[in-house]
């Protein structure tokens, strides 16, 4: 594998992982709020 490809892909993968983690936390929080209302 070309090291230049790794330099491009690694920051993108980290950014996507961070975004999905934040979305997941918000989804879990909303789900807990919805369950606690019932």
Textual characterization of the structure:
By secondary structure, the chain is mostly helical. The chain is built from one helix and no strands. The protein starts with a helix and ends with a helix.
Sum this structure up briefly.
The protein is 92% helix and 0% strand. The protein contains one helix and no strands.
Total DSSP E strands: 0
The biggest beta sheet reads: none
Structural class assignment: mainly alpha
Overall, the morphology is rod-shaped
Mean pLDDT, all residues:
93
Rg computed from alpha carbons, rounded to a whole number of angstroms: 17 Å
Order of helices and strands: H
Whole-Å distance between the termini? 52 Å
List keywords for this structure.
38 residues; mainly alpha; 1 helix; single chain
Produce the secondary structure layout.
Elements: H1 3-37
